[in-house]
Structure formats: structure tokens, C-alpha cells
Amino acid sequence: MSWAQVLQFRLARHHLVNQAPKKDLVRVIGDIGGVQAQVMSAAEMQAAVRVRCKVEDVRTSLWKDKTLVKTWLMRATLHLVPAADLPIYSAAMGSFGIRNTNAWLKYMQITEPELNTIVDAIGEVLDGQALTREELIARVGKGRSERIQLALKSGWGGLLKPVARRGLLCFGPSRGQNVTFVRPQQWLGTWREADPETALAELARRYLRAYGPATKTDFVRWWGQWPGVGNTAWAALAEELAPVSVEGQRMDMLAADLDRLTSMKTEHSVRLLPSFDPYLMGHAKRDHLVASEHGSRVSRTAGWISAVVLSDGRVVATWTHEVKKGTLAVTVDPLRKLASATLKDVRLQAAALAEALDLDDAAVTLA
Fold this sequence. Notes:
The chain is α+β, with helices and mostly antiparallel strands. It has two domains: 1-266, no CATH class; 285-366, no CATH class. The protein is built from 17 helices and 13 strands. The protein has helices spanning 3-13, 25-31, 40-48, 55-63, 86-96, 102-108, 112-125, 133-141, 146-152, 160-165, 184-188, 196-211, 216-223, 229-236, 258-262, 295-298, 340-356, and strands spanning 35-36, 68-72, 78-82, 131-132, 170-175, 178-182, 241-246, 249-254, 270-273, 308-311, 314-324, 327-334, 361-366. Strands 9-10-11-12-13 form a five-stranded mixed beta sheet, with helices on one face. Strands 1-3-2 form a three-stranded antiparallel beta sheet. The longest helix has 17 residues, at 340-356. The protein is globular, with a radius of gyration of 21 Å.
């Protein structure tokens, strides 16, 4: 099969061909394995380019309806996922999540037994209440050594990430300028335990539905480094997989999707994707999405993934934006000269995004 077919398939599975109705917001986010949310505004836009909704609808789903939840998951990064799916993620992440290596423990100046004790303590402290990071540190750190208190205060999630992977912590509504953390079982009001291996197989299955065809290496990159996680997941799905060749590259996909992919008719499309968009995050390499000489413009320093313009599923430009007097001002930086028809489509996409952001208008200029 061709890359054109594969990209058309992935665009459709990522809801980037036709936007879904607002009622399907949570389902769409689940279909693509969550949206990456270390920059919350980017996560809201990732949802809005796939669903006919306002960014306020994402906030309502998170903090009022509690049908979405925010926590650290794949690649130890923040994601929004359907609240009903969190027990599946937690079961798989708890057993197959990013490993607490000796080097990390040494850097944190903490031992494995101490880590396990702190994880349990944080879960107990959060039972039934929302706490800011400072409140959490004060309560868990009380009576512990200065070394442990310093570990609790470490940046980038530090000791909170292992707690989240165990399903004992997620984000609650902000209190002023401070984020809060809650115990998911109480915050969501429902919880069901899941078998870790069954959960991993289900998430690998969902991954392939949205990001396939793919390799085990691709899945490991999407999931986060854990020894053997690709082999374990692929073994669990052995009877469901079909090997395929994409212009000479050996990959796997769900056999149930073969007919759908091979019958795909390629249709021209132009889409604006926000920073850290999941479409760009699912594979070990991005050569099939962006020419290698332009790779550094998409995958930037410190793990930053640029907002991009897609044409037929491939990156043709990056873009930035700012809000000026109620207008979404988009600046497009092409990788190559863009056709006038492409720019026209970019303007239509920018106008739709402005509406999702509750802005009056959009303006597009070239860098």
C-alpha cells in the first residue's frame, strides 16, 4: 500500500477529514489516545480542530461534567483522556509505565522503598480532598527528612508522576493561580479495576486503530520507554495483527482495518494542527510526515512540537498565533512555496479555529 493511503486512513481516524459533532467530544479524544496537555491551550485546540466545539466545552467536560480527566500518562507527559478510560490507562501504566531507573532514583536522591512509601502516602492524603502542590508537599513531607522534602519539591511533576501512573492522583480544578490534585476514585465518582495485561492490549489496539500501520518501535515511542512493552503488547494482539508493506517498509496493523485502509480514496485536504498535536506524536520517526531537512522546524529543542499546516497529511508549513483585539492572528511559515488554493484553505481553517476560541475573526499572514 502507499503512504498516501496510509495518511488518508490516519487523517480519518484522527477525525481530521470531517469534524465530529460536539456531542462526540469525549469519544473523539478517546479515539486518538488522548490529547497532550502540558500546554492546556494547545490541548483545547487539538480537540477543537477535530470536533465542532468551543474550547470552553473542553473545560466544561473536565471540571464540571468530569467526563474528561487530566493527568500524567504516555511518555510521562500530561494528557486529557476520557474519565471512563482512566482505570485502563492506570492499570497498564502502573505495570508497564516509564521505569523508575536507578539513575532517576539517584538523581532524586531517593530509594525504591522510599518512593513506594511516598506514592502510597500521597494517595492517602488526597483521599476525599483537593490539595495544591504546596499543601500536598506540606502534608506528605511532615516529619520526613529534608532529602525527602526536596524530592517532593522537584519540578516537572517529579514524584507526582509515579503516583499518577498508579491511578492515585489526577488534576482537580485550579484554585486561583494554583493547580490542585485529587484522588480520581473520589473526583470521578466511579472506578473499576482492570487487569494490567488486558489493559495494555486494549490500549495497543486503540493505538493501532488511530496510528496504524505502525511498528512495535513506534508504539514504544508513543507509550514511553519500558523494557519489553512493545513485545508484550504485540504478543497480546498476535491473532489480531496483519503484516503490511508501506512502500517497502514492514509494519503491522489490525486485520479488521485492512479492508478499510486498502479501499481508502485519497482526498485533498488542508488542516491546521496546534502544538503537540497527537497526529505528529505517534511514531518513532516523522520522515513520512515532514522532509528530514525540515524536521528540526517541527521537532524543536526541549521536546517542543510546532503547530503545523498539513496538506494531504504531510507537513507543508509551521504556524504561530496571537490574539489581537478579538482577532486570531496566524503567521504561516512555509517549508516551500504554498499554492494560492492552499492558503485559501488555511484561511478557512483559521476562521473555524477563531470561532472555537470565541474570537470575532481570523487573519493569516506569511512569515
